[in-house]
Every structure is written in structure tokens, then in C-alpha cells.
TrEMBL record:
PANTHER family named among the record's database cross-references: SODIUM-POTASSIUM/PROTON ANTIPORTER CHAA, SODIUM-POTASSIUM_PROTON ANTIPORTER CHAA
The protein's name: Ca2+:H+ antiporter
Pfam families attached to this UniProt entry: Na_Ca_ex (PF01699)
Organism: Asanoa hainanensis
Keyword Amino-acid biosynthesis: no
Entry keyword set: Membrane, Transmembrane, Transmembrane helix
UniProt subcellular location: Membrane
Transmembrane portions of the chain: 12-30, 36-56, 68-92, 104-126, 138-158, 170-189, 221-238, 250-271, 292-315, 321-343, 350-367
Topology in the lipid bilayer: Multi-pass membrane protein
Domain named Sodium/calcium exchanger membrane region: residues: 40-191, 225-366
Length: 369
């Protein structure tokens, strides 16, 4: 009887059932014109598959340990982001999708560096009067994000080898290799050589050497999660292809610019990290929240841009990476405010509110440029 109950609970676990349901939705919707209600169901399956994929990636990461665990999770999230970008680029016209990768990556940077950071600082400060974190580790993370963003999103606006805000093939190759190398160096520093710079600090100044985690999963559980991770990623790619025409038509019908599509993708991909960061901030682990925020921003640039660079070999049309003037100002202001926030190692609700106001400005200007 107990075994039957255990099997029933296993099958009803959402992290197991959702990827399977999303895969079924993929088969039923493949190459079909879907009515509105069917598109909504597939979109719900897509969102559930994204959350399930991140969960199973975290299980595999917990089993393999650091530093490989961080790489597993980052690669899984990046695969989802790249899959959504490439799927929309293939389904749309080159003129409308040329800047999709740029818009998505920049939206991810704004959401993580202002949205997740601001929300974490605000919640942490409201709960404990002041939010504390390690300025050395967080400062290094912010510097890495700023460098990656400049290499991939700022320089194309000013280079002259290609007309418009685009890289030449050699410049794109350099940016991709440099991004991968810098991201790999940061992962090594964070997880091996200077791990203590990224450990949580409580408001009393105590360094928390161990997080409140359960025991590592068994090999059987990790292999099961690996299989379900593959199922979830396949479902994400297929379901994204099914709903992509509706997303583009909805954005156009609302009179929004194409950049809003990138914001939608970034919000969907970063939802799990946002929830995890909020939970950590409420437990007085603001450092963990900042690690998630800046780590997600680094992965979004340092892994997505190289992947898109490879995909551009067979994708038709231009690849616009350079930011226009308004976005350049927002990025510069985000880095400046981030520096002023990080250097003291302590933050009040004011700093959280400033970052959230920058996110609000970004979203408003994305809708009404």
C-alpha cells in the first residue's frame, strides 16, 4: 500500500508531470494553426516546462557539485534562452528579428541588475532594517557584468567594420571567445579559489559557511532529473515554435515595438531565478540573492552571445547587437548606481527602490520608446 502511494505521489509531482504534458502539447500542436484557447494552453505548458527544466538542472547541479554544478544550471538556462531566441528568429522575417538577441540579452541585464537586485535589497532591508552583503565578491560580479555588456552590446554601436550597430565576423568571434573566457574565469573564482567572497553574511556580520540545503540527491534521482531535463528542453523548443507567431502578432496588434518580445522572453527565462532570489532575501541571505542576480546576467551575456554567434552561421539576415542611445544611457546609469550600491556592502530600502525605478523606466521605454 505504501509503495502504491509513493508511486502515485511520484507521478503527480509537477516537476515530473509538467515536462511530459508539455511534450504531449508539442506533438499535438506541431505544424498546426492553433485557435486562441489552444495557444494559451501551449503557452502555459511552455512556462511550466521552463520552470521544470530549471528545477531538474538544479537537481543535477546539486549532485555533481561545484564548479560543474553552476555550469550545468547556467547551460540549461542559456539553452532555454537561446532556443526561444532562435525559434522566433527562424519563424519571423530577418528585418523584424535582427535585434531580437540584443533585446533579450539587454532585457535580461536590466531585469537582473535592477529588478532582482532591487527587489532583493528592498525585501532584505525591510525585514532586517539594512541589507548586508560582501562588497568584494559582489563588486567583482558587477565588474564582470559591466565588461561583458560593454564587449557584446556597446562596442557594436561604435565599430566601423560593418554598417550599422553590427559586428564583423572576426569581431563577433572575438567577443564570443572573450565572453566565454571571462565567464569561465568568474565561475572558477566564485566556486573554487575565492568562494568565501560570495558566502552570505547576516546582519550581525556572521559569515554563513553552509546554506540550508538538503543532502545531495542520489545518483538515481540525478539521472532521472537529467532525463526529465532533456524532455523539458525539447518541449520548450517545440512549444516556443508553436506560440511564437501568436506572441509576435499580439505585440504588433498592441502597437508595441519588437523589443517587447525580448522583454517577454527574458521575464519567462528569469522567473525561477527571481523566485529563488526573493526566498533567499527573506531568509536574510541577500548575498545569495545578489549571486543569483549577477550570475544570471553573466550567463545571459557570456553564454547566450557565443551561442547566437554560432547560430548566426546558418541564420539568414543581419545580427544587430549594438544598443541605441536610450539603452546605452540606461546601461551606464545601471552600472553607476550598481557601483554606489555595492561599494558600502550595506543597503537600505532606498537603494532597492532606486534599482526598481530603473527597471520600471526600462520597461516603460521598451513599450513606449
Amino acid at each position: 500500500m505504501a509503495a502504491a502511494v509513493t508511486r502515485r505521489a511520484y507521478l503527480t509531482n509537477w516537476t515530473i508531470s509538467v515536462p511530459i504534458i508539455a511534450l504531449v502539447a508539442l506533438f499535438l500542436s506541431w505544424n498546426r494553426d492553433l485557435p486562441g484557447w489552444a495557444t494559451t494552453l501551449v503557452a502555459i505548458c511552455l512556462a511550466g516546462a521552463v520552470l521544470a527544466a530549471v528545477h531538474h538542472a538544479e537537481v543535477v547541479a546539486a549532485r555533481v557539485g561545484e564548479p560543474f554544478g553552476s555550469l550545468v544550471l547556467a547551460v540549461a538556462v542559456t539553452f532555454i534562452e537561446v532556443a526561444l531566441i532562435v525559434t522566433l528568429m527562424i519563424s519571423g522575417t530577418p528585418e523584424k528579428t535582427a535585434s531580437l538577441a540584443r533585446d533579450t540579452v539587454f532585457a535580461a541585464v536590466m531585469i537582473t541588475c535592477n529588478g532582482i537586485v532591487g527587489l532583493s535589497l528592498l525585501l532584505g532591508a525591510l525585514r532586517r532594517r539594512v541589507a548586508v552583503f560582501n562588497s568584494e565578491g559582489t563588486g567583482g560580479a558587477l565588474a564582470t557584468v559591466a565588461t561583458l555588456a560593454t564587449l557584446s552590446l556597446v562596442f557594436p554601436t561604435f565599430t566601423t567594420s560593418e554598417p550599422g550597430p553590427e559586428f564583423s565576423p572576426s569581431q563577433l568571434t572575438f567577443a564570443a571567445i572573450a565572453s566565454l573566457a571571462l565567464y569561465g574565469l568568474f565561475v572558477a573564482v566564485q566556486t573554487v579559489r575565492h568562494r568565501d567572497y560570495f558566502l552570505p553574511i547576516t546582519t550581525s556580520g556572521t559569515v554563513v559557511d553552509t546554506e540550508e540545503h538538503a543532502d545531495p540527491p542520489s545518483s538515481k534521482a540525478a539521472l532521472g532529473s537529467l532525463a526529465l531535463l532533456v524532455v523539458a528542453l525539447v518541449a520548450v523548443v517545440g512549444d516556443a515554435k508553436a506560440v511564437s507567431p501568436t506572441i509576435e502578432k499580439g505585440v504588433a496588434a498592441a502597437g508595441f515595438p519588437p523589443a517587447v518580445v525580448g522583454v517577454v522572453i527574458a521575464l519567462l527565462v528569469l522567473l525561477p531565478e527571481t523566485l529563488a532570489a526573493v526566498r533567499a532575501a527573506l531568509r536574510d541571505r541577500v548575498q545569495t540573492s545578489l549571486n543569483l542576480a549577477y550570475g544570471s546576467a553573466m550567463a545571459s551575456i557570456g553564454l547566450t552571445i557565443p551561442a547566437i554567434a554560432i547560430a548566426s552561421i546558418w541564420l539568414d539576415g543581419p545580427l544587430t547587437l549594438g544598443l541605441p542611445a536610450t539603452e546605452l544611457v540606461l546601461l551606464a546609469l545601471t552600472v553607476l548606481v550598481g557601483i554606489l550600491t555595492v561599494v558600502p556592502g550595506r543597503a537600505t530600502p532606498l537603494q532597492g527602490g532606486v534599482h526598481l525605478s530603473l527597471l520600471a523606466a526600462f520597461i516603460f521605454l521598451a513599450v513606449r520608446p
